[in-house]
């Protein structure tokens, strides 16, 4: 790994109070002096962390272009404290918002993978709501969503629950599912599922106010590509690009997939730069 990728050391931010307090780990790469492009913000998927392939590659792009990059581990993930079994969309959203408030970038591009796509969409809603009240907080310049899984608890899990899983939820408060990515099973709690209903985004128009690029594998066994098409239907007022990867799986972590991801991010950066600067400059040419 190039030395430039190992400069940042984990920082820790306490989120919540009392028994709900947990230490959230984050890696923050500052922008090169004078670079006014938006900061890149990485949002991981369920049971993933900020040291995964796509997250590291995104940070590498930021290093090459002199951009700020913010990564975090949700509670119960990676280097962060807290119990995974306590995790809910609301809880992880609170942590992402707290990190953004702490780092305080002016403008951001959200890059969310799988569940991170859901967190990104909820962040967009919360930033718009809070900004409308206080006129503070980062401005959303764009989003790149990789195999986004908004509302996955109510759209993809609940309708497919087996009788034994429903029984386990009722009696134990959770059920386990074999994971193809880890020897440890996935654990879905009743709290996660119930909280997911409160955080639905696919029940109306989603107004992000920024360009959105979605990357979706057509051989994704976890999030069907029809789910990405449904998401697009809920983004009618945004500039949305949907790119299908015909042989792509859920992770989209192969070299070709990574190249698509970085190209999509650079496209969003270029779009935001052009909106900020009417005349093309050498700075803007970096993102071409």
From TrEMBL:
Its protein name is Palmitoyl-protein thioesterase ABHD10, mitochondrial
Q: What is its EC number?
A: 3.1.1.93, 3.1.2.22
Protein purpose: Acts as an acyl-protein thioesterase that hydrolyzes fatty acids from acylated residues in proteins. Regulates the mitochondrial S-depalmitoylation of the nucleophilic active site residue of peroxiredoxin-5/PRDX5, a key antioxidant protein, therefore modulating mitochondrial antioxidant ability. Also catalyzes the deglucuronidation of mycophenolic acid acyl-glucuronide, an active metabolite of the immunosuppressant drug mycophenolate.
Tell me the InterPro entries matching this sequence: AB_hydrolase_1, AB_hydrolase_fold, ABHD10_acyl-thioesterase
Q: Which Gene3D superfamilies match?
A: alpha/beta hydrolase
Keywords for this protein: Hydrolase, Transit peptide
Catalytic activity reads: mycophenolic acid O-acyl-beta-D-glucuronide + H2O = mycophenolate + D-glucuronate + H(+); S-hexadecanoyl-L-cysteinyl-[protein] + H2O = L-cysteinyl-[protein] + hexadecanoate + H(+)
Q: Is the Hydrolase keyword given for this protein?
A: yes
Key word Kinase present: no
Q: Which organism does this record belong to?
A: Rhizobium sophorae
One GO molecular function term of this record is: palmitoyl-(protein) hydrolase activity
């Amino acid at each position: 790994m190039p030395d430039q990728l190992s400069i940042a050391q984990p920082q820790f931010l306490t989120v919540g109070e009392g028994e709900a307090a947990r230490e959230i780990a984050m890696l923050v790469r500052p922008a090169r002096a004078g670079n006014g492009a938006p900061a890149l913000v990485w949002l991981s998927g369920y049971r993933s962390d900020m040291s995964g392939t796509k997250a590291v590659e995104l940070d590498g792009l930021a290093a090459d272009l002199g951009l700020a990059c913010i990564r975090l581990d949700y509670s119960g993930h990676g280097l962060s404290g807290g119990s995974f079994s306590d995790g809910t969309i609301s809880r992880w959203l609170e942590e992402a918002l707290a990190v953004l408030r702490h780092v305080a970038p002016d403008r951001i591009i959200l890059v969310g993978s799988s569940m991170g796509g859901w967190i990104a969409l909820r962040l967009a809603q919360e930033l718009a709501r809070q900004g409308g009240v206080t006129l503070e907080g980062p401005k959303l310049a764009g989003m790149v969503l990789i195999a986004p899984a908004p509302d996955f608890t109510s759209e993809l899990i609940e309708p497919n629950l087996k009788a034994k899983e429903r029984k386990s939820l009722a009696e134990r408060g959770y059920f386990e599912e074999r994971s193809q990515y880890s020897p440890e099973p996935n654990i879905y709690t009743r709290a996660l599922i119930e909280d997911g209903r409160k955080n639905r985004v696919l029940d109306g128009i989603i107004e992000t106010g920024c360009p959105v690029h979605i990357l979706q594998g057509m051989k994704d066994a976890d999030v069907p590509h029809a789910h990405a098409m449904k998401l697009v239907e809920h983004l009618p007022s945004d500039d949305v690009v949907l790119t299908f990867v015909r042989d792509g799986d859920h992770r989209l972590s192969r070299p070709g997939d990574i190249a698509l991801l970085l190209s999509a991010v650079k496209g969003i950066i270029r779009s935001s730069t052009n909106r900020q600067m009417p005349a093309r400059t050498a700075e803007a040419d970096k993102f071409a």
